């Protein structure tokens, strides 16, 4: 005969274990029941076109639920509403300042901060090489950006800042001025500069941009009103004259000398040299080995430097130390050729391409900006 079993005693469950189990059950039920597309669509809609440069680029995910998936956002821009006038502050026009940077100069950043154009209308774009010097420059740049954008006064903060790192090796390991300006280094160096400028331009030019100011990282002194002064000429491409301050041992005092020789008017001699060149050869300015006899804007300033700052001269070639460009010029396709374009390359090739598109460069021989003196 079977014997009856006694009462069964169950082991008491720990209350903490029950609590954790309940939380997990609630999370699993919510995860399974919630529509997959709901939260994502709301996030996409809230960020659509919020970036000052371009619409969001993350992929649109289809819903896994039975409900109908929300369509991806559509951003609309009417370029007819983007004004480009001689009074950019009055028109609240957005300015994009682009700087290829191999070295960081504190004087460059200090001068940038002194620009009187409303900073909330300025976007900064930088591109730096992926080498030791580029790493050092990036670190120094980010420190200044953090001070300005996070802890600086509201009026000093810029609309947005973009930092790019080059995806190709720089052709020169040294950025010393003597090495950069050797004639045998010019083609490779300037082709690399063209690629950097194009990468920076195509990545940052937005639908609301009115003006693009190209400003080299070693420009350490400009008038605070640089942007509105150049824009006041209402020209598609405007180049100030780039000089360099130095100590003149003969005069025993500080003096200044021309620096950028890429702002020029063409000459019959230069055209004759170009006609005899092969398809892959380039003309270079400022070298005795290749005398072009072009009229250089660097030497158009009168003795004593007291000429009219508003004087304009037509140019056939431009440099990139400081250059204000209407955004429509770039939108039309004018870029910086890294290849011989009518025997010209980089900024001079850009001027030639812009002229072919109907945009004519203008120089200001008596309006000066200053280059760092190594």
UniProtKB/TrEMBL annotation:
InterPro entries: Mannan_Polymerase_Subunit, Nucleotide-diphossugar_trans. It comes from Coniochaeta ligniaria NRRL 30616. Belongs to the ANP1/MMN9/VAN1 family. It comes from the Eukaryota. The lineage of its organism: Eukaryota, Fungi, Dikarya, Ascomycota, Pezizomycotina. One of its GO terms (molecular function) is alpha-1,6-mannosyltransferase activity. Gene3D superfamilies: Spore Coat Polysaccharide Biosynthesis Protein SpsA, Chain A. Keywords: Golgi apparatus, Membrane, Signal-anchor, Transmembrane, Transmembrane helix. This is Mannan polymerase complexes MNN9 subunit.
